[in-house]
Input
Amino acid sequence: MSKAIYVTSSESNSGKSVVTLGLMNILLGKISKIAYFRPVIRENDVHRQDTYIQTMLTHFGIDTPYNDCFAFTYNEFLRYRSENNNSFLIDTIINKYKKLEDAYDFVLVDGMDFEGEGASFEFSSNVEIAKNLSIPMILVSKAEGYTPDEITRNILATLQFLRNHDVPLLAVIANKTNPSDVEELHLMFNRRLPKHLLSSVIPVINELRSPTMKEIAEAINGKILFGQNYLSNQVDHFIVGAMQLSNCLTHLEENTLIVTPGDRGDIIVAMIQANLSKNYPKVAGIILSGGLAPEEPIIKLVEGLETVVPIAAVETGTFETVNNVASVKSRIYADNHFKIDLAINTFEKNTDTAALMDKIVTSKPEGLTPHMFQYQLVKRAKLDKKHIVLPEGSDDRILEAAAKLLKQEVVKLTILGKKEEIEASLKRLNLELDMKNAQIINPADSALLPDYISTFYELRKGKNVNMDMATDFMKDGAYFGTMMVYKGDADGMVSGSINTTQHTIRPALQFIKTKPGVSIVSSVFFMCLPDRVIVFGDCAVIPKPTSEELAEIAISSAESSMMFGINPKIAMLSYSSGSSGQGEEVVKVRLATELVKSRRPDLAVEGPIQYDAAVDRVVGLQKLPQSKVAGQATVLIFPDLNTGNNTYKAVQRETGALAIGPMLQGLNKPVNDLSRGCTVDDIFNTVVITAIQAQQS
Ligand code: ACO
Output
């Protein structure tokens, strides 16, 4: 079951809170601990609470602390967007959301509202957030002002957009529908929307659409003069009371607000009387404009009437006041029980709530975005802190990554190198290492050295290694670090920022050796593409694998992908798809695919297959229509190192994708290699995946 739902609309003023309130009510009937989360709130004033959060927490008695219910104010959101700091926005939202997901059984996420200058990109931001949180959506579509055909076309276009971004949509709710269109819209939805999509049609409800006097007075900075207890009066219309009194009376409709200059005592008194008269409709309230107070005799008269018409005064002129009133949108406040109950009832009356709950319960989160992937990696590593050795203490990038890892308390570290030199570098870089979780060892004068030398000698004496050679080897950082892992003095090693791949991994191949049942060590990269994470193997270790080895690489890569939360769908890549091509290399891949199928019938595998058919749904369907992998492969196995290494680098360079790895697979204990061009973040990520591998060892 998905642990959350994301409610979004595709434009402003859709009446989304009817759906969020209704949804919260039905969810609470099934699930006891539910949190409410708004990634971005409207309220920019830190001293005032966001109305939507306040209403949810108060009405449903939700115990989440207010500050945990949102990630950014709207101004902050716009600022970070304009600074191109999208990663920070998404990472912060994921962090705050995940905190709630961990503490509660379910999270109702309420998307942005399209009310400010960022409205043009709010929908795509909502989609991006839902995608990164890996949660399905419910779309609230505004029906007011559109024909049934236009509403349906709008929804179909939105649906296509969501499909292109791989965000699952569970239901679509047309809200504020003209009552005379409800039936036709139902029919149109049945005919034109996909069958799996749940749809409902909610008619416009005036009591929900219209703001109250309280909302208007607050929005226009009105000072309440009379009728404090009647501020919940609903305002359906407004008129300007600048005309003759008799004309004014003829314009009155049910729930009208009158905007009139403060010195029009005649209008004020007449409107109060009209409200009492059975021949005139209810007057919602009066706004006195222009900063003019009614004269004393008028005030005295109104006071004596115990008026039930709320009267507020504003400083702005009549014209500006009318414009301000016109722009006020209805909100549902925590103390407006009538509106809350009406919203919930309206939702329940017009939605198949049982079917909706069923959809929510059965939907499964799919895919993993790079932000979520990295978030989960760090979180997992922290759960059971492992001890990682970094042999290249003379490299500044290693020290920077170490400082970051220790600060975030992700792992414990041993850094190899001369203590004085490392301390001097730290000083120069203005870095501090948290030494309660770290140590610096110089292999050449370490107390561990004699034992390591004799262990290495014993392990490798059959390979013509004598004691002198063993001593030399063990003074080398890669050998010493690997021996720490072998002996259990560390849980994993990350090296290669200044040494070659061969230099880094050869010690592990020589004495850490492969796991039982695995004959070769190979590697994978986690390729963090803009919208998903896929696995590439092997792009770093085995130059020319045989069919047997290719099958092993595929199986190990599938296991690695599972270890990191990616559902493996294996594509055995070649220059041929299915039976289309010929040649020795195609035969090798075909045979490897058959070996995977016979050894691991539980794994989804396709091969030979070309890259485009493996990852593109349209091409995949065209070339291999029966395949369960074509078009949706998540694990891509290259036929040899030449293809694999160049492809990973090409994808990385040309798309800007983050490539995490190579992560070695098949070893008894984790050792991982860095590229010499690695960044501090690459080192950080490689240490994190090494720690997770160590947790599994
Ligand atoms: N799996 C398991 N064991 C292996 C493997 C393997 N893939 N390869 C070698 N071994 C074992 C050998 O059996 C040998 O064991 P033994 O000494 O106990 O008998 C031991 O490892 C050492 O073998 P060597 O022959 O000394 O090592 P070799 O010279 O074959 O080097 C290496 C192995 C380093 C993996 C080699 O295959 C290689 O250079 N691969 C390409 C690395 C590379 O340049 N990658 C591209 C750059 S990486 C990047 O771009 C991020």
User: Anything to note?
Assistant: The chain has a mean pLDDT of 91. The longest strand covers residues 169-177.
